[in-house]
Amino acid sequence: QVQLQESGGGSVQAGGSLRLSCAASGYTYSSYCMGWFRQAPGKEREGVAVISTGGRVTYYAAFVKGRFTVSRDNAKDTVDLQMSSLKPEDTAMYYCAASRRPRCRLDGNEYSYWGQGTQVTVSS
Fold first, then answer.
1. What does the H/E/C string look like for 4-31?
2. What is the pLDDT of residue 29?
3. Mean pLDDT over each residue of the chain, to the nearest integer
């Protein structure tokens, strides 16, 4: 049974930092692209960051470049999202997801497995 479990969300003031983690199980983790997505109330889901199977290639949405860093540990089947310089507009439910596609992209439609999400709230 495939499971993706996010953790690390919470409330923080603007300018602060949070580190999200996602633990995967039930599939061949190292063969999958991993991505972080988010969805704010009343808004569509958007891609935040993705990382290739080996961890060498990453892509970021323009609105998080320079502030967020995605990393993965294939020995532990985990993927992290380090978030810094957080802004109120970063407030959303954050999800990790896995894709078996050969290219890792920020398109959520290409991801077959999803976690339940972890809430991030940034206050001004």
1. EEEECCEEEECCCCEEEEEEEECCCHHH
2. 87
3. 96
Q: Give the SS3 label for residue 55.
A: coil
Q: Give the three-class secondary structure for 108.
A: helix
Residues 49-69: b if buried by 16+ CB within 10 A, e if exposed: bbbbbeeeeebbbeebeeebb
Q: Cα dihedral angle (106, 112, 113, 114), rounded to 10 degrees?
A: 50
Torsional sign, CA 108, 34, 79, 1: positive
Looking at the chain, how many residues does it have?
124
CA distance 9 to 17: 10
Q: What is the pLDDT of residue 65?
A: 83
- Positive or negative CA dihedral for 93, 96, 100, 105? positive
CB 4 within 8 A of CB 96: yes
Q: Among candidates 34, 6, 11, 36, which has minimal Cα distance to 21? A: 6
